[in-house]
Fold each of these.
Amino acid sequence: MNQLTELFAPNLNNYIILCSILFTIGVVGVLIRKNIIIIFMSVELMLNAINLLLTAFSVHHGDSSGQVFVFFIMAVAAAEITVGLAILVMIYRNTGSVSIDSLRNLKW
Amino acid sequence: MTELTWLIPLLPLIGFLILGIGNKYLTKSVASTIACATILGSFLIVLSILFPLINGTLANTTISYFDWINTGSVHLSFSFLLDPLSITMMTIITGVGFLIHVYSAGYMSHDEGMTRYFAFLNLFVFSMLLLVMGSNYIVLFAGWEGVGFCSYMLIGFWYKNQNYNDAAKKAFIMNRIGDLGFLLGMLLIFQTFGSLDYATVFTTTSSIESNSSVIIAITLLLFVGAMGKSAQIPLYTWLPDAMAGPTPVSALIHAATMVTAGIYMVVRSNVLFSLAPFTLEFIQIIGLATALFAATIGLVQNDIKKVLAYSTVSQLGYMFFALGLGAYSTALFHVLTHAFFKALLFLCAGSVIHAMSGEQDIRNMGGLAKKLPITFYTFLIATLAISGIPPFAGFFSKDEILAHAFEHSPLLWGLGLAGALMTTFYMFRLLFLTFFGSFRGTEHQKNHLHESPLSMTIPLMVLAVLSTIGGFIGIPEVMGGGNWLKKFISPVLGGTAEVHTLSHETEWLLMGLSVGAVLLVIAIAYIIYVSKKTVPLTEGVETSVAQKTLYHKYYIDEIYDTIVVKPSYLLSNMLHQLVESKLIDGFVNGMGTAVNKTSAAIRFVQDGSISYYLFAMVVGIIMLLFFNTVI
Amino acid sequence: METALLIALPFVSGLLTLMFNDGKAKMVALLFSLCTLVNAIYLACNFCTCTVWHYELNMPWLTSLGINFSVGMDGISLMLVLLTTALVPLIILSSFQREITNAKSFYCLILLMEAALIGVFTARDAFLFYIFWELALIPIYFICLIWGGENKNKITFKFFLYTLAGSLLMLLAIILLYINNPARTFAIDQLYTVGASLDFGTQAFVFWSFFLAFAIKMPIFPFHTWQPDTYTTAPTQGTMLLSGIMLKMGIYGVIRWLYPMVPDAFSFYAHYAIILSVVGIIYASFIALKQNNLKTMIAYVSIAHVGLIAAGAFIGNLESLQGVVIQMFSHGINVVGLFFIVQIVFERTGTYDMSVLGGIRSKAPLFTTCFIMILLSSVALPLTGGFIGEFLLFVGIFKYHSIIAAVAGLTIILGAAYMLNAFQKVMLGEANTNTSDFKDLVLTEKLVLIPIIALIIWIGVYPQPFLNISEPAVKALIEVASKTSALNH
């Protein structure tokens, strides 16, 4: 029991592993999915992985500035997703699809 | 006495400005009056200085007006020098210049550009006075270039004719070749002596060894300048072409004054030249070669002005020959007498051309003696003078040159005499063909024949008198004259006054020989052209090779064209099309093209697909992290 | 302080010009530029030879980087400021016969350009110098781009990139000097000492970087290929600015920023620069011989003339530098006159092609007189402006090396050849259909040409006032160069 508690206790290593897994899922999602909405969600996943990590470290060090950054990131992410979704809507109106392959014009 | 010196060049300049600015508003008579009056004014001031200088009441003076260029080691003042040499030249320039101005008033009276003509003639007199009056080389150079420019404007006076413009351009460019030599010579003088003032340069020559390379370089470069200005081989071809200008211009600029600037300059620098016997010998050769070469061409020319032009080249060669012999005052003496009789010859030619309504070919003349008596007699006097018949002016100066030549070697004397005989021959050929025999022109010309107005004939008569008595200022010792001119000039010549070593008997013998030979040649010319009535063949008739070569002036113009002008243009084209646009600009543009090409090539790396970009980004980050930890 | 005002005046007036409508803009611009000229002349009159530097202003600007707004004038600067302020009104006046679209921007740009040019000639701080140097490029770029002739986009682009590339290297050199300066400032006097104390390799780098920037600006052979095209395509006023004033930036740079800055590298490498300059003289003269486009020909003539000035600047003895200063002045006046002549011909006949011109002399005597005067000055006939500088330059060059002087002297012959060729083709002969109704000069044209000719004669006959202005400055410069050079050894 004691061993089990220790194993699942919120120690820092576990948080790091969890965040790495979440982040990697996010990266892979961005790389392999075609749907822009999914890609967005994957990006959010990555951001949240980082947020989690920041919070964990903040608690670990007893320094609240990490959590301040989390709020900051959340605010920026919200703004970003607004702009991103607006772009997405425009893309959909113009191309009729939300597939990433419909965007091949980003070149000179 | 010298307070008015500054007015001497300034008066013609003022004349130029009035005529130039008031071009539109002045009538012809006002314009010619202003032009003549300014020159007359200068002439009178010159005389007011000349006599005190002769009396000895006035010593040589340098009058400094203002600092012209004064910076660093360069101290050049705008200053004039009054001494026997400059005053002699000033007298010739303003005196003969005035006569030619008066003559021009008649000669150019039908030309609409008369005001412009007088403006430039005045400017010419101004520049020429600057040239001889300057007390340093830089003022001389200012005048030197100024006369070149006036010569350009006056040769191309009738600018609607592009052939005349070509002649003018040629004259200016050929002069400029000489000017470059002169400029470099001047710079070398400045380098060596630290000054361009005559007074300083000529008194600091003691450190210079005779025939050292510096002095040879200086004198040769100066002589190159003289070659251009005074039309010596190889830079002489512009002078015959310069006859495109109005005839009084040929008389003033291309016979009496400007072309003798080179001789003036050498006489002025005699101290330097005497230190360089090598250069003197070179000048001797060039002078004699020019004298003979031009004389042979003169033998077969049919244009009245061309004959006179080649005669001028030949006489200038003579003067340089004298300079090369070290006989500076003799050369100056010949400049003086030549100014009289050659100006007279040109003015007579002008009178003839005027009477013949512009005809210049002597094959279409003949028998003009009766119609143009004054012109005929004055022309005769001038011809006798140039041929060296005593007691006319040319005899004394020419004889002195020959005597000096004999001193050096009898061979030089022989060659000099040959030149003189050729001169006599072509001059009498000209005289006989023009004034003797029967008229060969058109009916229209015949009816139009008339003696020129007084304004033209008076200068002719004055010059005729001068051509007759002008030689008396230099009667040699052997005739009991004591050569006044030589004594007058001798202070300028420093220690290099030439001494006769010939015995009196030899001198008399030489004179007798040359006069006899000249008379013989006149007789021959008389037989050919008057008794036998030979007339030169018309164009296109086959003649012997020698004659053809002479007639085409040894094809020198064509040769210059082939070896200088055409290659220059070729080089110009080549530089522009090959080096400029292909090589240099090709390289510059090539850099731009290279950047363009490279970017065109690597832009395909970015195919525009976002997923690919994202992939690249992730790989990039991973690699960054990787290298950050590993290295 | 006065210098700063002199820079500010055209700058402010340029902006003010924008507030007027297109019709009034030219008069306003002319008045403003005349004010600047009066100001400059006033400063010149109060200029005494007691000290070298006058009207200085040293104000902290970006203190953290040690950058100061430091301006002032010595004789050399003053001569160039006088040139700039005298030419700009003439250039503005020369455009009065032209129809210019969007005129107020045009004149605004000219005035801004004037401010930048005065700044270049008076800056005493390397950073400030660089700022003004680049600032001068912007107005002229737009002038060429907007009001230029055929093919303007490509040619202006090339001009801009070419000159920019050169000045970028100069920036590198300035930064290099700066980081070697223990005091961490850009002040010119300190940089002189810094430059002289560098080891030879670094000095060489600084030398060539500066050289490239200046050589492209002047331009010296073989960095000149942007110039003929740009001069031909630019509107004539732009060409006048480029050839009359802007090219002097390069020469000024050499004598102010290069010669005293790295004395060792200078004395070692100047020889190559001189040879390039002299080659350029001959090269450009030969090309000018066969040009058929009048404007292009004058462009090549300008390269040839500048080659001689550049050679004098790289020789750097008292005579040659004095020659450089006076020749910069008279070349500026001359070349503006020549391009104005070209413009008059073009406006009346619609062509630059010399082979279809001719016979103008008989139609326009006054114009002919002006052309001849300017032509004489550009072939350096004594008693015209061109001669004084050319003579002093030849004295300097001859002191340096007699053979180089002889080769450079060929310009005397070639200059006569190409100028007279052009004069003959354009002016002489019979009038043809292009030139048969050629009108003589109108009032505004006279107002441009008469001051030019007056200056040509003034400099030619009595150059002493000008020589006196610049002599102490040149001497001081030579002293600095020899002192810093001695420090090192």
Amino acid sequence: MGVTQILFWFLSVVAIFSALMVVTAKNPVYSVLWLIATFFAISGHYILLNAQFLAIVNIIVYAGAIMVLFLFVIMLLNLNKETEPQKNRWLKVAGAVAGGCLLLVLVAALKDADIKSQTALVNTGNIGLIKNLGKELFTTYVVPFEISSILFLSAMVGAVVIGKKE
Amino acid sequence: MPINYYIFLSVALFCIGIVGVLTRRNAIIVFMCIELMLNAVNLLLVAFSKMHHMKALAADVATTAGTDGQLFVFFIMVVAAAEVSVGLAIIVMMYRNIHSVDINFLNRLKH
């Protein structure tokens, strides 16, 4: 078992454990912090797959910007363990069973898929580097890129309009 | 790494996100679980992009096949960032009106 395998299993266990803690933590602030841990584990997976640009963007955009926004809103609304609304126990059990059934169905469907021999290239390959991604982004995908800037502008205007007191 | 390890990891993360959406009542945590599901999909897209790249590499050494998968992940992150800003504005407005982030208060879409 090489160092790549060890890192893969370690990052997978960290990602799944922190994702479970996001769902089960009572205090919303702890949920946000566990979600940041999940995003760091997923970024580790990106680095393992040599998608370094996405790993850095994931840390900067998700862990750095979006999660800070979540944390800011939670602290602004002063949410804590006491104000946390709780579903009744049977609805929680039903939700967990429904999610578990979906997991079971997906795993059962994908278990026998004809992909056993396919492998994802780890540690090597330079398509994840910023040079290749940038070249592709500003030639083939330049129109979606510009449209996404308009999307950001409209999202910004929308957030301001929704958020302001009338 | 074999691709099915990545598939099962992503499926597990996605299902944890779904369980979170189904079992929590705090609107912000439901929103965070949706982010978790988006990230599971992103991870799978990157893994598939590397799988595609490896297959193309056998035919051509200088190939850039698989770049589009990673660019889709980039666009998903862009859309997620826009979505979060609007969604959190809606949650703040909801808190201002009903003084709670409990989604059960909004289950009839009135008040």
